Amino acid sequence: MKRIPIKQRSNWQEKAIEYGFNFHTMYGEPYWCEDAYYQFTLAQIEEIEEATAEIHQMCLEVVDKVVNNEELLTRFQIPKHCWEFVRSSWQLSQPSLYSRLDFAYDGIHPPKLLENNADTPTSLYESSFFQWIWLEDQINIGNLPTDTDQYNNIQECLIERFQHLKEAYNIHFMHFSCCQDTEEDRGTVQYLQDCALDAGIESEFVFINDIGLGEKGQFTDLNNQIIVNLFKLYPWEFMFREDFSTKITDCGVRWFEPGWKSIISNKALLPMLWQLFPNHPNLLEAYFSDDRFHPHMSRYVRKPLFSREGANIQIIENGRETHSVDGPYGEEGTIIQAYHPLPVFDGNHTLVGSWLVDDQPCGLCIREDKSPITQDLSRFYPHAIID
Predict the structure, then answer these.
(1) CA distance 202 to 196
(2) Which site in 10, 169, 208, 314 is 20 to 30 Å from 279, CA atoms measured?
(3) In angstroms, rounded to a whole number, what is the distance separating the alpha carbons of residues 27 and 183?
(4) pLDDT tens digits, 309-336
(5) Helices 42-66 & 269-276, crossing angle to 10 degrees?
(6) pTM
(7) Cβ(262)–Cβ(78) below 8 Å
């Protein structure tokens, strides 16, 4: 695994706008970057792929354990009135769409799981589409060898997944939703709508706060059309605390992602994995912060159960906080995880994201941050496979 400088495409900004990648720069700072790329060998990609597949199956074992245990549902901060909703979504094998595991990986040592973005992962469009365009262009320009590859079957897998949903569940129309004033989220949802359309599924977009409740308890869009199949880029932990959360069980909606994803998108997953699979080579030691019997760790990270984009994360070394990020999380409880620093390339802390669609690994993405804690304005870099 290497960070290799490369000449940028002269017209990449114009291409980004042409293809609808309107959030390539955010808050005046570059988000998409291509002055360098990360080079992997095929063996390194296979190592990430194998770890992703195995850990995902381990995560599903955690779901099976948690949904049948009220004490654990409480520990995961899932409101009591949502327990049956989450449990039945698992028992009925309600289908999922996609997710992303984040690893610390340097190409030498085994990848270590940092968290599971199983409910509302972003960076999807740039991972599956725009970095593939970058690869093709760089090969055509002559900046990369003609046999250069990329670990990226994400778009093909998404379209196949939507085709399966259409055939197996008779889904011909879906609603898609996210919050307002989130250009990145809206871009992600629009991309998923395009993939669904390629699979023959028509769709309609509605903002989360514009979803209404009909007379018979059914969710509706602004045209009073009943919502039957809904993809929402909106976290379950938020939705469970909305006024209408008491209606989600009986509203007749097939949810994407399904309710059981609320378990493996929760940082409480990490101590559960360590409890069930202690000393697994791809896991970091982790415990609930309020567990009086967890062993002392001199270097650890404290993470709120619902933290996103690095918010409210603290790095503790020898009893002293060395790095932290402010944010709105923490009251829901925290976990501690052994501190495993991200590898540093040219002064950048590098995080590897490994994508799954339909429970199968299918691609990766790279994000960099000047801070040891990857945050919402981290930079996205493309990757390539060159043996």
Answers:
(1) 7
(2) 314
(3) 11
(4) 888 899 999 989 999 888 888 789 999 9
(5) 100
(6) 0.95
(7) yes
